[in-house]
Structure formats: C-alpha cells, structure tokens
Amino acid sequence: TWKWVVGPMFLYLCERLVRFWRSQQKVVITKVVIHPFKTIELQMMKKGFKMEVGQYIFVKCPAVSRLEWHPFTLTSAPEEDYFSIHVRIVGDWTEALFNACGCDKQEFQEAWKLPKIAVDGPFGTASEDVFSYETVMLVGAGIGVTPFASVLKSVWYKYCHDATNLKLKKIYFYWLCRDTHAFEWFADLLQSLETQMQERNNAEFLSYNIYLTGWDETQATHFAVHHEEEKDVITGLKQKTLYGRPNWENEFKTIAGKHPGSRIGVFLCGPEGLADTLNKQSISNSEADPRGVHFIFNKENF
C-alpha cells in the first residue's frame, strides 16, 4: 500500500510548498475603488504574476484573519499592468476587509496604510478557451458575471490592437440577475464597450441581453412606461433590460441559423440547474453532420 501512497503524497506536499511560497510573495495594493452598493475593487501588483482571462485567485488578509483564504475571480484583463478583484460586502470577512482598506472613512487613505494582502494563484477555468472559437455564447448568472468582465476587457484590448488576427468574430452575451444594482460596476463596463464599439462602427461584434429575474409588478409597470426611451432606465444601456428568463431553445436555434457550419463555444458561470439546461440545449441543437453547426459547452459552477 505504501508504494501507492508515497507518490501522491509527495506530489501533494510539493504542491502545498509551491502554494506556500507563492503566498509569501509581496503584493502591493495600488488602488482601491469604491463602487455602489458596498462593492470594492482592489487593484494589485505582484512580481511575476501572469494571468489569463476568467481565472481566479485565493486572497488572505492577515489584518482580518491569519488563516482564512477566500477565492475571487479576476476582473482585470491580461493586457492591463495590474490585476484586480471585485469584492461585494456580504459577510464578516468582507466587512472587515472593507474597513481595513479605509473604505468606511470619508478622508483619502494613504497607500502605506492599506493592509497587507497574500495572493495564491492564479488558477485556470474553462473561460480561458474563449478565444478558440469564432462565435461564443457567454452566460453569467448573478455573481457569475465576474469572469466575463475579464473576458470582455481582453477581447476589447485584442480587438483594438489587431482585429484582423483575432479569431473571435461574434459574442452573444447573456446576463441573468435578480438585481442589476448589486453589479453596477459591470453595467458601467458594458456601457463603455458599447460606446467604443459604436465609435468604431462595429456595434454588431457584441450582442448582449440582460434579464432581470427578480422583478415585481411595480418594476414591470415602470419598465413599460419608459420602454420607448433611447436608453434603458435601469442600466443606462441602449439594449433594453428584459424581464423573466430566456427561452434558451429559441436562442440556440436563432444563433445556429445565423452561423451554419460553425463550432460555437457556450461558456457558463452559474448554478448547476442552468448548466444542465444549457448542456441539453447544446447537444440537441448540434447537428450529426460534422460539417454542421456544433455547440461546445463549457462551465464553471459556484
């Protein structure tokens, strides 16, 4: 038995040593941005840190807890000279981090007063393969939208640098959430991308749909009254916010009709129930003919 146990145990110990060494490397918080609804953005730098789109890291703040490590998705793009995470204040640890960063104070916080941060990672996810397809469907549910902040930023940087060599030609983005106010920072990112794409006369590159699943009668009435306005009253985007949940069968059939003979990547960050639905639709809408349209499903759950 010991012959079978020694090998895996040695590899495990090596992995733990590497992670301990990485977590001891110095991390500098370069900027703290306070977003609406108690969400903070930490922009950081670390020597030798290299990331890909959609990856995540583990974060420890010794000033808050010396033992707790928490996973956060990277919301920056690999092309940026820093890496960032968005932290929503929803518990004791995040509340303590919020206070440790001086976000509860009105005055400007000096950089040297910011707490020390330990970072382990980055670690890979399915979202890294997004640039392997010409057409992709990105589906984010609630907080699962965070990996796609990194993806969309990176797409924009690559598009501006050399659009002709970019294999990715079309993005269909779906954002399902109960309340967009909790993620206003992401709506701001979408608004910026929308404006920049229009300035470059390529507004069709990114098609997105925002679905509010936690709506009531009052919100629906307000939506109906303002539906004819140029920009959406909730997000400020030209694309109007939709209520309820998508009809995934119709969405898949429409996309399959627009891109015959293509391999279409379907990327989800969301709950298991939605993953089952999208996986079934990917299979049922893929053709048996190798030359036909095929949906390739990729997921990461939380």
Automatic annotation (TrEMBL):
InterPro entries on file: Cyt_b245_heavy_chain (IPR000778), FAD-bd_8 (IPR013112), FAD-bd_FR_type (IPR017927), Fe_red_NAD-bd_6 (IPR013121), FNR_nucleotide-bd (IPR039261), RBOH/FRE (IPR050369), Riboflavin_synthase-like_b-brl (IPR017938)
Highest taxon above the source species: Eukaryota
Keyword Transport appears in the UniProt entry: yes
One GO BP: defense response
GO cellular component: monoatomic ion channel complex; NADPH oxidase complex
GO molecular function, one term: metal ion binding
Subcellular location: Cell membrane
UniProt entry keywords in alphabetical sequence: Cell membrane, Electron transport, FAD, Flavoprotein, Glycoprotein, Heme, Ion channel, Ion transport, Iron, Isopeptide bond, Membrane, Metal-binding, NADP, Oxidoreductase, Phosphoprotein, Transmembrane, Transmembrane helix, Transport, Ubl conjugation, Voltage-gated channel
Membrane-spanning intervals of the chain: none
Catalytic activities: NADPH + 2 O2 = 2 superoxide + NADP(+) + H(+)
CDD domains: NOX_Duox_like_FAD_NADP
Names of the cofactor(s): FAD
Main location: membrane
Domain FAD-binding FR-type: 19-129
Membrane topology: Multi-pass membrane protein
PANTHER family in alphabetical order: CYTOCHROME B-245 HEAVY CHAIN, NADPH OXIDASE
Annotated function: Catalytic subunit of the phagocyte NADPH oxidase complex that mediates the transfer of electrons from cytosolic NADPH to O2 to produce the superoxide anion (O2(-)). In the activated complex, electrons are first transferred from NADPH to flavin adenine dinucleotide (FAD) and subsequently transferred via two heme molecules to molecular oxygen, producing superoxide through an outer-sphere reaction.
Name of this protein: NADPH oxidase 2
Species: Crypturellus soui
